[in-house]
Write a structure and sequence with these properties.
Elements lengths: L1 E5 L5 E5 L7 E4 L6 E7 L4 E6 L4 E6 L6 E5 L6 E7 L2 E6 L4 E6 L7 E5 L36 E4 L6 E4 L15
Antiparallel strand pairs: 1-2, 2-3, 4-5, 5-6, 6-7, 8-9, 9-10, 10-11, 12-13
Organism: Edolisoma coerulescens
GO biological process, one term: canonical Wnt signaling pathway
GO cellular component, one term: plasma membrane
């Protein structure tokens, strides 16, 4: 799945399949300017930062069990969001410090370090990487991902895929080659 935020005409948090199909709103009320998103892949939670409402909130992948983690003026200066173990990590754009926040109750806020011009944060750790299984976009014997001549996108499951073409090309009638 692909998770993303939008704060155009109607602010929301959405998800869809990697090929853009099955687009679903998971948060569309009491939300104004969601600017950062983080996923708890193990427990299937979506965290987001709303700088207009000055809040950090969480829902499950279906948009249920919504909770506010923290709220207040200090959220106004946050950008970027990552989750790892018991904490959320974010950047305070006012003083460029990396903050660690308890993700269960919003307490235990701690500045960890200061970085110049930081706008985004990611946590890379072996335990956060999903186990790779065979999938529909694996390279075939001819070196083509999922048998697609240009781009292979996973669809509704790891067994299904959709082929797409780079800009300027059109997908052929076989659904795999680009012309």
């Amino acid at each position: 799945k692909l998770f993303f935020t939008d704060y155009g005409n109607a602010a929301k948090v959405e998800r869809c399949d990697m090929d853009g199909m099955n687009r679903t709103w998971i948060v569309d009320s009491k939300i104004e300017q969601p600017t950062a998103l983080a996923l708890d892949l193990i427990n299937k939670y979506v965290y987001w930062l709303d700088i207009y409402l000055e809040s950090v909130e969480v829902v499950d992948y279906q948009g249920r069990r919504r909770q506010t983690i923290t709220k207040g003026r200090q959220v106004r200066h946050l950008c970027g969001l990552a989750v790892f173990e018991n904490y959320l990590y974010t950047i305070n754009s006012d003083n460029l410090s990396i903050l660690r926040i308890n993700r269960y109750n919003g307490t235990d806020v701690q500045a960890l370090a200061r970085l110049d011009n930081a706008k985004e944060i990611r946590v890379y750790q072996k335990r956060t990487q999903a186990a790779v299984r065979s999938h529909a976009c694996e390279v075939d014997p001819y070196g083509m991902p999922g048998g697609c001549s240009h781009i292979c996108l996973l669809s509704s499951s790891y067994k299904a895929r959709t082929c797409r073409c780079r800009t300027g090309f059109i997908l052929g009638s076989d659904g795999r080659s680009c012309k």
